[in-house]
From TrEMBL:
Lineage of producing organism: Bacteria, Bacillati, Actinomycetota, Actinomycetes, Kitasatosporales
Native species: Streptomyces ardesiacus
Catalytic activity annotation: ATP + protein L-histidine = ADP + protein N-phospho-L-histidine
UniProt keyword list: Kinase, Phosphoprotein, Transferase
CDD domains with a match to the protein in the record: PAS (cd00130)
Enzyme class: transferase
Name of the protein in question: histidine kinase
Length: 432
């Protein structure tokens, strides 16, 4: 059985050398043109649109520089190493023989996966041990589809190097069949695309900043923990229902995360007022009251009942709907209660569902969570179609690198402001 050429094998000078040289000339000319346009259109560094344009120009120049390097490899053979800061990386290859259970890796693949080149190549069963826990089901599914259904592999996953560095790897593979048409082995090429994905994220984040609403007042005044809480990666957003020339001044709901007890427990709350359009100070007053109750030792099941009398002595409208969650990092337990507010959405292993629990604030439910789980709380202003759409995003949400990335995804997928009602969302990602 013959194997495909190793991705590291320095080939002889390929045919069409003159054509490759012409492509190199065109690529370098285009790179120069793009660089000239970038210099002629410098924007204000403080302007979000200017930052987004600069990030796009930088990414385009990176890719054109790497295209030049790719073409040079076609002309001259592989370069010893990519240039510093390049989006380009060498490609490694592997073949796993299903008949002998032997594995052959190219030298570059050991480096891509953070393995000692002198070590023994890992079998397909051992390969997931290098992969980030939440990405292992994705890798397993790709390999199974390839071996069982002869489907080509084309996907990405993250690997953890011995020094703790996490790298994103793009894998393409296919089954190798014997004379009887039976899968005898699997061959694959892998490339480290971490720098490319980082540059693409910069473009995406700067683009999103053009339309991302500013954080609401209570987020700043009361110190929403952007850096997370013990055992949780946190992010949240207020999504106004209609565009406005400046920061929104009226709100229909709130969100918050704050310490609940001295043992690292966290209170997560999302809710909405009975009357829409509360002045900016309203949610701040309510969140402050909730934090006071939490610090006084009031448990999640009692918060709704205790909050009502406090609001009655203010000019604020009553709470229409709210969900109150207490999360204990050890042993990763969530207790929650709600009043007329949808239950939290739980995303795990590429699937999502609504938690089941009590129907009111008189009782509370409990759920055991796992590292990599993602909770999504919202104010109940989303219609059923929007909720079903969020649940369909489960593979992308559980594959997000952070809670902030998940919130960006939700913000994009919920559509333009004129297509939705005033909404608050809070994402909590369970960390290892």
């Amino acid at each position: 059985m013959s194997s495909p050429l190793s991705a590291d094998h320095p080939a002889a000078r390929p045919p069409g050398h003159g054509s490759v040289e012409a492509l190199i000339t065109q690529a370098r000319r285009l790179r120069g043109d793009v660089d000239a346009v970038r210099r002629d259109s410098q924007e204000d560094a403080a302007d979000p649109r200017g930052r987004w344009q600069r990030a796009l120009y930088d990414l385009a120049l990176h890719q054109l520089t790497d295209l030049d390097a790719h073409l040079a490899q076609l002309r001259d053979g592989p370069a010893p190493a990519p240039r510093p800061g390049s989006l380009l990386s060498r490609v490694g290859s592997a073949e796993w023989n299903l008949l002998t259970d032997e594995a052959e890796w190219s030298g570059e693949l050991f480096r891509i996966l953070g393995r000692d080149p002198a070590s023994v190549p890992l079998s397909l069963d051992e390969l997931p041990s290098l992969v980030l826990a939440e990405d292992r089901p994705k890798l397993t599914a790709m390999v199974t589809d390839c071996l069982v259904d002869a489907r080509p592999i084309d996907g990405e996953f993250r690997v953890v190097h011995p020094d703790g560095a996490v790298r994103t790897v793009h894998m393409m593979g296919e089954p190798v069949l014997d004379d009887d048409g039976t899968t005898a082995s699997m061959w694959a090429v892998l490339r480290d695309v971490s720098e490319l994905r980082r540059s693409q994220r910069v473009v995406s984040e700067t683009r999103d900043s053009l339309r991302r609403p500013p954080p609401p007042p209570w987020h700043v005044l009361l110190g929403f923990p952007d850096q997370g809480r013990p055992g949780l990666d946190l992010a949240a957003a207020h999504l106004p229902s209609a565009p406005a020339p400046g920061p929104p001044s009226r709100y229909g709901g709130w969100y918050d995360a704050c310490p609940l007890a001295a043992d690292g427990e966290t209170l997560l709350t999302v809710g909405a007022f009975e009357a829409p359009g509360v002045e900016a100070h309203g949610p701040a007053v309510l969140v402050g009251a909730l934090r006071g109750l939490a610090l006084a030792g009031v448990r999640t099941a009692e918060l709704g009942d205790r909050l009502g009398p406090l609001l009655a002595s203010t000019a604020l409208p009553p709470v229409r709907a709210a969900v109150y969650c207490g999360y204990r990092p050890l042993p990763r337990t969530l207790t929650w209660a709600h009043a007329s507010c949808p239950a939290p959405l739980l995303f795990r292993g590429g699937t999502g569902h609504e938690l089941t629990g009590p129907g009111g604030t008189s009782g509370q439910a409990e759920a055991s969570l796992e590292a990599g789980d993602l909770l999504l709380l919202h104010t109940g202003t989303l219609d059923r179609a929007a909720l079903e759409h969020l649940l369909s995003l489960a593979p992308r949400l559980t594959g997000a690198d952070s809670a902030q990335d998940a919130v960006r995804l939700v913000t994009r997928e919920l559509g333009e402001p004129q297509d939705r009602r005033d909404t608050c969302v809070l994402v909590a990602r369970v960390t290892p």
